Amino acid sequence: MPPWLWAGFWGLVAGSALVLGAAVGYFMTVPQRLIAGIMAFGSGVLISALAFDLMDEAFARGGFDSTLIGFIVGGSAFTAANWLLAHHGAKHRKRSGAHQSSEAAKSGSGLAIAIGALIDGVPESIVIGISLVAGAGVSWVAVIAVFLSNVPEGLSSAAGMKASGRGAGYVFGVWGGIALASGLSALAGYAIFGQFSEEIVAATTAVAAGAILAMLADTMIPEAFESAPDFAGLITVVGFAAAFALSKLGG
After folding, report:
1. What is the Cα–Cα distance from 154 to 67, expressed in whole angstroms?
2. What pLDDT is recorded for position 114?
3. Mean pLDDT by 10-residue block, N- to C-terminus, for the chain (251 residues)?
4. Which pTM was predicted?
5. Closest by alpha carbon to 160, among 173, 171, 176?
6. What does each C-alpha distance from 219 to 2, 116, 241 come to in angstroms?
7. Are 125 and 186 in contact (CB under 8 A)?
8. Residue 103: predicted pLDDT
9. Are 139 and 131 in contact (CB under 8 A)?
10. Distances (CA, A) of 188 to 122, 128, 198
């Protein structure tokens, strides 16, 4: 199978965890503290992956300039997009309780939540595609980290969507669409950025890392620390340690 198809396949695999998590969150009654704990674990996984995999890779390819500029641009771009979406009802799109706006309470919030979920997932998937550019195979750390973090994202958000009165068609339409977009984004990450210089690839990887960190701070971590304040920090540490071990064992 050609590398670009492998990129799309692994992006789809990682994105499918969103649908898996959404199914659990929508059809099962999961205690909110457990959801928060899973969110904390997923946050720790992604923080470790972006620190020890994405940023290290970006620095090795492009040095300080490309890495730091890309990182700040990525965080700034996500923050601006998230601010805009928050004003249209998507501020609490990853919250599992009764935080999310219903369509009746905020017209257009359903579309805003769907777009927000898309911008949350695309940077992670692009990184999976870029990891194949060097020709050494996909980054297993990136795939596993994104998969592990996507399960709680889908779970928490789907539970919140259900609590706000949204039906199964909307919930699984959103997450199925995002899973498909994840595969296409990974494919694009390989097909597009494989043609560029090391500095451009480095900057793009750092942009994704910055966007992921901003996403964690704005959407995942608040859910974790509101509902599981006693142990959220420790669970985040465990998630970080698990991804750190994966990074070192995989390297």
Report:
1. 30
2. 66
3. 84 90 86 82 88 87 90 92 75 56 50 69 82 71 80 78 82 88 89 81 89 84 74 90 81 55
4. 0.80
5. 171
6. 36, 10, 21
7. yes
8. 45
9. yes
10. 10, 10, 17
The position carrying tokens 């998937």 is 125
As a three-state string, the secondary structure of 101-149 is CCCCCCCCHHHHHHHHHHHHHHHHHHHHHHCCCCCCCCCHHHHHHHHHH
Q: Tokens 């994704």 appear where? A: 208
Tokens at residue 89, please? 């009802």
